[in-house]
Here is the input.
Amino acid sequence: MEGDGVASGGMCGIIGVTGVDEAFSFLVEGLRQLEYRGYDSAGVALVADGDLWLAREADGNHSVEELALLETGSRVVGSGVSGSRTGENSGASSGASSGAGDVSIPPPRHCEAGIGHTRWATHGRPTVENAHPHVDCSGRLALVHNGIIENHAELAARLDANGHEIASETDSEVLVHVIEEELRRSESLLEAVRRALEDVRGSFAIAVVSSAEPGVIVAARRVSPLIFGVDERSAVLASDIPALLGTTRNLFALEDDQIVELRPGVAHVSGLDGSKVDPVPLTITWDLDAARKDGFDDFMTKEIHEQPRAVAETLLDRHGPGGSLVLDELRLTREELRLVDKVFIVACGSSYHAALVAKYAIEHWTRVPVEVDIASEFRYRDPVLDQRTLAIGVSQSGETVDTLQAMREAKRWGARVIAVSNVVDSSMTREADGVLYTRAGPEICVASTKTYLAQVAALEVLALALAEFRQTLDHGVIERLVGNLNELPAAIEECIDREKEVFEVADRILGARDFFYLGRNVGYPAAMEGALKLKELSYLRAEAYAAGELKHGPIALIEPGTVVVGIATRNRLREKMLANVAEVRSRGATVVLVANDGERDVEDVADHVLWVPEVEPLLSPVVNAVPLQLFAYRMARELGYDVDRPRNLAKTVTVE
Ligand code: AGP
Here is the structure.
C-alpha cells in the first residue's frame, strides 16, 4: 500500500548564485542560513569551466557542515557521494551517485554559477540519492526543487519509456529529465524549462543550471516561494529572504507561474506563458530573526498560519485509484489488518490528545475496540496485547522516549506496530511495521499546533483505511468522509481569519487564574488539547474534564471568576453539553464556548463565543483546536511570556 512516489516536501530550502567567483562558499553560507527550517540532507551543484561539479550529503542536520568540509578537501573519501565532476569528459554516470572509493574533488575555485538545497523529507527516506540537486542523464543539468509534483508518476512513466535513468525515488528528479528532453528541441535552457513546466501539475520553486550555459540560472515558481536579487556584477536566488539578507536588499519575489533567467548583474523575468513581467522590488524591513519567521512575530504564529497547508499536504495522495486509501509505508497485508481484533494507541502530550480523537473515529468506523494510553503508563502496567493487536505510536518527533519504548514493548508482545510521525526516518518510523507521515514540515515552536492538526487528520485517514480494509464502511460513506477531510484546510483558514475576535475574548478574560475546559465525545480530547495549550504557554492552571463528569465532584470548584471553556460544536450530545454549561454558569463561572456559525442559542449560556465553521463531528477537533490555540497564544503574549520557548519545556522529550 505504498504511495506511488515520494514528494520532496514543502519545507526545502533553495539557494543559487551567478557572477560570484567563490560560489561554493556563498552557497554553503546560504544553506547555513536556511538550516533553521529543519532539514535532513543537503547538496550543491557548481558550473565551472564547462563542467558540472556535484556534492550531496544525507547526514541529518550536519549535512551542510559536511559539505563545507569539501572546500578544504579534508573529508574522508568514499563516504557516500563525494564532490565529483559529472558530464562527458569525466565519464561519470548521471546522477553523480558514487560510493566508496570515489575520488573526492574539492569544489572548483572559480565558478560561473551554482545552486544548493536543503531537503526536509516529508516522506521517502533522507538518503543521498534523494538529496538535491538532481542531475539529468547527460550530466550537464542540475536542478533543485521545493514543492510537490503531483503528476510525477505519469511524467516518470514517459521518461522511463524514453530510456531515462531515474536514480532517486523523489518526484523532483523527474523534472530535470523532462527539461533534458525539452532541451533537445529548445534554443536555450530558459525555453526548455518553460516548455517542461507546461506539463507539470503541483507546486514548485525550482532552479536549474547547465554546464552548456555557464553563468545562467533559470528559476520558476508556482506556490512555493522564490526570492531573487541582482547587483551590478552578480545575481542570487533563495527560497526565502534570510538566505539573501547578508548579500543584498535589492530583492524581488517571483510570483506564481513566473520564470526568471539570472546572469551576472541581470535578471530577466517573464510569465511561463511568455508574457512580459516587470518585477516589483521587495521592501525589506526585516532583520534576520524576523525573516526566519516569515514576518510573523514568532514561530508559533507562523506555524498556526501554516496549518491549512500542513493538513492539506498530509491528506494529499491519500485517496488512491478506485477510492482505495493509501498510507505511506505499510509493511502489513490487508489480511493482517483484517485480523486485528484490538487497537492500542500510545503517545504523550498533544499526540496523546490526537490519539484520543482517533479512538472515537476508529471505533465508530471499524467497530474494533481501541485503548489509548499515555506512553509512560502503558509501559509499566502489564497491558494485554497479542499478535492480533495493532499498536499505533503517535509522535511528532518520532523520538519521544516514552512512546518509543512503549512501541518496543508492544512489539515484544507480538503486536503489529504503526508509527504516525512528522519526521522521516525517525527512530519510531524505522522500527515500525507501517508508517503514516504527517507532512507538516518542521515545527520549531515547542507547543504543538500544526503537527497536532496534521496528526488528527492522519489518524482519521488511518481509521478510514482500516474501515476500508475491514469493509465496515461502504465506499460511498468513505468517499463522503474523504470529501469532509478535504474540506478541513478551508475551515482551518476561516478560523485563523477570525484571530481578532479570539484575541478580543482573551483580552477580556485576562487576569483569570482558574480554568476548566469541558467537552463531550470528541469534544473531550479537544478540551484536553485546549487546556494543555493554555498551561504550557501562559502557565495558568487549566483542567480538562468530560462535561458529564463535572457534577461528580469537580463542580464544587466552580465559583465566580472561574473560567469555563466549552466545546459546543454540533454533535449528538450538543444539548447535553449546553445543559452542563448552564449548570456551571448558574454557579458564577465565566463561560467561553466554541460553537458553530449560526448557532445563536449558545449565546444564552455563554459570556463569549468563539465561532467556527461546522464540519463532520468526528473531524471537528481539527477545527476546534484553532481558536483555542489562538486564545492560549494571546493570553501568553499578554502575560509577556515567550510562546516559542516556554519555561521548563523541551520540544522533544528524549529522557524518561
Ligand atoms: C504539546 O504542545 C507539547 N509539544 C508536548 O506535549 C508534545 O506533544 C509531547 O512531548 C509529545 O511529543 P511528540 O509528539 O514529539 O512525541
